[in-house]
Amino acid sequence: MKNNILRRLFLLSLISITVFILSGCWGKIEIERRGYILGVAIDKADTKNLNTASFEYMPLETTGPLYAFTIDVPIISSSLNKPSGQSGGNADKARNWTLTVISNTFFEANRQYSTRLNYPPYYSHLQSIVINSDVAEDDISKLLDMFLRDTEMRRRTKVFITPGHAADLLRVIPKIDNSPSQYLKSLPNNNFKTSRLLHKTDLGKVSEAIHEHRDFVLPKVVANKYEIKDAGCAVFKDNKMVGWLDEIRTSYLKWIVNYANGGLVSVNLPECSNSPFTLEIKKIKTKQKPIVTEDSVEMELDIKANLDIGETSLPGLRNVFNSEFCSQLEKAAEKKIKKQIEDTISYVQREYGADVFYFGTNIQRFAPKAWDKLKDNWDEVFKTLRVTVNVEVKINQLGLTR
């Protein structure tokens, strides 16, 4: 009798465990039946898209600004083939499918894609979001609302701004990658090679800036048929794009906020005006320190940079293994960096009044009492804020020339 009870308990336990192990998800969709969305582009709606005979047209139930939302869907069978850049491939054959829908909101457009895409759209692998600059001049927080609200979206998705047609970037035919969205997303990874690339600009960072009411920057991208270039940045104030920074100012912006972890500095010595020296950045450390007095506040930047000599243009491979010569080169680099940083700060203060340098954040952190007095009028204070820049350069490696 006892053995029968134990046997029954064992069977009951085995059945219970089996139920948990073998149970599946009732709402599951097989991976080969998903429409993987790798990129999204947002443009202003063109009048040609409003033609009722157009595939992009969608009858709307509400009024409001119209946007052209374009998605990048990989063609899996094509992606498994040899990359088009290799011998025997077709360089003009796209390996992705772009669909555009005109709508007031992306959520509505997303549901409309299902009328043309035979697999349900799936965004957990979203790589890139590209926004046209005309669209970005409006409040982009409302355009990113679904991306920040929906559980499928990832905070690591990269966000870019383009002065051209955003959908064109999703139609690029890459030479190496299968998808233009993957190509675009990977470009900021080269930031250790050049500081002209912004890299800490994913959806999560944008969300933090929006919620903290901070000004911010996003990378500028342009494209042709086969290539995408990522350099320079767009400046945002109150969640609206107010202008651009060129590549050099973008580079020194990263010095100011302590984000630069690679790149170079080119300098000329007075006696070698036609022979530039290219110095490679090995390490940069920037400290922002607010200087507060009874009636004023200033910012002080202390920058320490370790550089290597990457290349010289001196005739005859002139030997640079000379301490006096290296000291002269270090002083020239310090002067150049100081000037470029001061120029970048004054340009942003004068043209945009956008605190993309985190000066306000650091005053709030290190001088909270002063911040309480300044925060209501910070936009005006920032435009005339005095910033002292101290630069110390050390050249560690001279390289081999023999």
TrEMBL record:
State the superkingdom: Bacteria
Its membrane topology is listed as: Lipid-anchor
An annotated GO cellular component of this protein is: membrane
Note whether Signal occurs among the keywords.
yes
GO terms under biological process: spore germination
For this UniProt entry, which segments traverse the membrane?
A: none
Q: List residues of the Spore germination GerAC-like C-terminal domain.
A: 232-399
In Swiss-Prot or TrEMBL terms, this protein is called: Spore germination protein B3
